[in-house]
Each structure stands twice: as structure tokens, then as C-alpha cells.
Specification:
This protein has 382 residues and is of the alpha/beta class. The chain contains 17 helices and 11 strands. Bound molecules: ligand V47.
Length: 382
């Protein structure tokens, strides 16, 4: 039996025959299809379909990068119920790095082959506009070749407010100061019900999408996320994915979709259990199948343990993120994954998962590949 015939049979037996037919024909799945993928008990059949798409797009390649995180402040006035990271100034553990302190974090890693800094933080209205520009300039001065992936749509909303200028102008100035692309956080789940219940002081889903549209119009790439495993329903997850897909049809600016697994320690949703490893596999698979116009799906290993991320590489994911030096947001929320995984360990983990490791930069140019593709490691590092 061919692989495709086996896939069809497995899907038929799971009652997913019509969905498999669409996937094999490259047709878009509907919202009802998305719901069926969330509700079926046949997780392996869902994973096999997602794996088919993943292999069609990326073969056996699995991407990673060498990156570091700088969470420049934990001051925040949004009081999201899922968050364990936020503090008010003066509270124990509260901090706001100066641009120079952030740059020092970059200089600490100059001996490591870091190509990206991922910079996200809380939202604090008293931080002046110049701070954000100085932060970017200081980081770039410390390591000129580094790609700065910074500021979620929530931070950009605040930066624009304090800049008192139109968003396109602000984005141009941030780019000039060194901004290379934007991360995908802050989207949470777009549903108005959960926004009201869990993070009503934050921008709404529609506002998040409107800012992402402006970011893409400014020729900046970004990622997209969904925070799953708390109070959301399957319908709300499908709605979220569909709204991302609709924007992507217009802009094409999302590079990667990352389902973020809710971590329940030290926050107001601590009574919730958080997602299981099986939930994480399903979320990766449904994301891969629904977001037919987003090139990459990332299993962010820091959030889900490296072993689960390895399994995700056969459930639709083609990326595991990076070496992630000094992550704060999830570790404050109970993540027990190591703070720093060496490049060699990530390579071995990908090999052990039966995939070909490919080191990428933020924009998915190949830096190094075990396949021996002519990467551009020297240019990426200088
Ligand atoms: O927006 C906060 C999430 C996000 C918790 O673009 C939590 O490559 C789980 O933007 N449990 C920020 N999640 C992180 C982010 C990100 C992460 C990895 C890769 C990329 C990328 C972007 O972290 C927040 C929120 O959704 N978060 N608290 C928590 N307790």
C-alpha cells in the first residue's frame, strides 16, 4: 500500500475521510473541519494528515536557530490573568533594564554564535518613546549582525501611543533604529468572551490583527501565536485560527505559527491544569492543517519539554525555535526546561526525532544544514 493510500485508510477509519480528501487535494479546510479535528479521539489520524502537509512543504528538514531572549522589563499594567511575569514598579522582583543593561546581555553572549535576539516585555506607559529607539540602537551597537525580533502587537500599540505619531511612521523609525521583525505573542485567543474574562485591559483580537496588518504593510515579517490550554473552547480556537488565516490571505506577512501552551504556576489561573502533551500535539497538528497559508509551524520546546517538541516534528511542526538564553516569561510561570540549550543538543534532538537539522536565521535563510546546503554562517555571524 502506498503512503497516501495508508493515510486515506487511517483517516477513513477515524471518520476523517472527507477532510483527508481535501488535505490530499490541497484544498482549504473549513471551520467545521477544524472542529472535527479538535473533537475526534483519533489523534494519530490528525497527526498523520498534518505530517503529510509538513513533509510536502519541508521534507525531512527541521529548523532551529541560535537565539537569546531579552525581556527588558516586567513592569506591566495589563494584569492578564494567565501571566506570572508582570510586576508593578517597586514590587519585589520588578525591573526595567536600561538600554545599556540590555546591550550588556547581548555582549555576554558574543562568544556564542547567536543570530537573533527575541525581545519582548511588559507594557508600561511611563516608558518614553526614545527608550525603545535607544534599546534597539544599543542592542545593534553591541552586536551589529544580530537580527532584532522585538515587540509584540501589544507593545507596539503602547509604543505608538507614547510616540503620538501614526503607526507607519513609528514602524519606520523602529526599523531605522534596528528592528528586524516582530514576534507573535500577545494574541492569546481572539474571542471576545475570553478577552473580557482574562485580559480585558489588553488590546482586543481585532486590534491585534489591525496592528499586524500595519506591521506587514511596513514590510516587516512577524509570527503569530495562540495561547491554548486554559478556558478556551474548540470553537474559539477554530475562530482564532480562521482569523489569522484570513489576514494572512491579505498580507502574507506571517512566517510562523506558534501554539503557546498555557503554564499555570504563579498566576490567577493557577487552578487550571494547563494542556497535556497530547493537547500540545493536537494543537500543532490542527494549526498545520488549518493555516494552509503560513509557511512554518513551531513547536516551542521551552514551553513543552524537548521530548514533546521532538514528537511534534512528526505531527506538523517543522521548527523548534532556538537555544533561548535567559527566558523569563515561562520560567516565572513554572516551566522547568533548561534556560539554555546548546546548539549541539538541539541538533542531536532533531536527529533523534528522525529529521534533518537545519540552522536558520530569523527570516529562514539557511545558516547551516546537515544536508550540506551552502549556508551563510559567516555572513550571519559577522
Ligand atoms: O503573549 C504569558 C504568553 C507570550 C504565559 O514569535 C504565557 O517566535 C504560557 O511572544 N503560560 C509572549 N504562555 C511570548 C512570545 C513568543 C514566544 C516564543 C516564540 C515567539 C516567536 C513569541 O507568552 C504572551 C503570552 O501569550 N504567556 N504567560 C503563561 N503563564
Amino acid at each position: 500500500m502506498t503512503d497516501v493510500a495508508r493515510l486515506r485508510r487511517q483517516a477513513d477509519e477515524a471518520g476523517l475521510g472527507p477532510i483527508a480528501a481535501k488535505v490530499l487535494a490541497g484544498e482549504r479546510l473549513s471551520r467545521d473541519d477544524g472542529l472535527a479535528l479538535y473533537r475526534t479521539p483519533h489523534l494519530h489520524a490528525v497527526g498523520a494528515l498534518a505530517n503529510h502537509v509538513r513533509e510536502k512543504l519541508h521534507g525531512d528538514r527541521a529548523y532551529f536557530n541560535v537565539n537569546q531572549h531579552v525581556n527588558y522589563t516586567n513592569y506591566c499594567n495589563k494584569f492578564c490573568r494567565f501571566c506570572s511575569f508582570d510586576r508593578l514598579p517597586g514590587q519585589e522582583g520588578a525591573y526595567l533594564m536600561t538600554p545599556e543593561e540590555a546591550a550588556a546581555k547581548i555582549r555576554e553572549q558574543l562568544d556564542e554564535p547567536v543570530t537573533e535576539v527575541h525581545m519582548v516585555a511588559g507594557v508600561w506607559p511611563k516608558i518614553p518613546y526614545e527608550y525603545y529607539l535607544d534599546l534597539l540602537r544599543a542592542v545593534k551597537a553591541a552586536r551589529p549582525a544580530i537580527h532584532v525580533k522585538a515587540f509584540t502587537m501589544v507593545e507596539l500599540d503602547q509604543i505608538q501611543k507614547v510616540a503620538k505619531k501614526p503607526m507607519p511612521e513609528v514602524l519606520e523609525e523602529l526599523k531605522e533604529a534596528g528592528l528586524g521583525s516582530c514576534p507573535g505573542g500577545g494574541a492569546e485567543v481572539f474571542a471576545e468572551r475570553i478577552h473580557r474574562e482574562g485580559y480585558h485591559l489588553k488590546i482586543t483580537g481585532d486590534e491585534w490583527l489591525a496592528i499586524a496588518r500595519q506591521v506587514h504593510a511596513a514590510r516587516l515579517r512577524s509570527n503569530c501565536t495562540m495561547l491554548h490550554g486554559h478556558v478556551e473552547t474548540a470553537e474559539e480556537r477554530v475562530d482564532h485560527l480562521d482569523r489569522l488565516r484570513t489576514l494572512q490571505d491579505v498580507t502574507g506577512g506571517f512566517q510562523t505559527y506558534i501554539p503557546l501552551s498555557f503554564h499555570p504556576e504563579n498566576n490567577e489561573w493557577s487552578h487550571l491544569p494547563g494542556p497535556t502533551a497530547l493537547d500540545e500535539l493536537r494543537e500543532i497538528a490542527v494549526g498545520r492543517l488549518m493555516l494552509d497559508n503560513v509557511p512554518h509551524v513551531k513547536a516551542y520546546w521551552i514551553l513543552m519539554e524537548l521530548g514533546v517538541a521532538q514528537a511534534c516534528l512528526s505531527f506538523g511542526a517543522d521548527d523548534v525555535d532556538g537555544t533561548v538564553v535567559e527566558e523569563r516569561i515561562y520560567h516565572d510561570a513554572g516551566a522547568t526546561t533548561p534556560q539554555k540549550t546548546q546548539r549541539e543538543e538541539l541538533i542531536q534532538a532533531i536527529r533523534d526525532a528522525g529529521r534533518i537539522p537545519v540552522e536558520r536565521n530569523t527570516l529562514y535563510d539557511v545558516v547551516w544544514s546537515e544536508e550540506g546546503e551552502p549556508g551563510n554562517r559567516e555572513a550571519a555571524l559577522t
